[in-house]
Amino acid sequence: MKVNSTEWVWLNEQAICSARNLVEVSGLSNEELDDLIENGVITPVDASARPMSFPLRYIVVASTARRLRDDFELDRHGMTLAMALIQRIEELEMELNAMRARLGHGMPNPG
Question: Which top-level group of life is the source organism from (predicted)?
Fold first, then answer.
């Protein structure tokens, strides 16, 4: 019988974690995490600091990347590309919402 353990963590911009922690919590390999960092999907607090540390919010990003990898059987390059595209879509959605708010259009009705 397999037992899964879940630990709750409050994700905020002040708290940080190590690369090792991201790998352990997300299930990514070190190489996959390196690809996400090299492509700007995950950004360290200080790129010149060793060891690197990351805002806790990247636990969600790394876990999402691992789920995409597993669910769609992606190699690490496909996983990184998918995450970069998802990140770009989120940025564009925020930009669009900000423009709508400035124009006074509000948010569109869902459905």
Answer: Bacteria
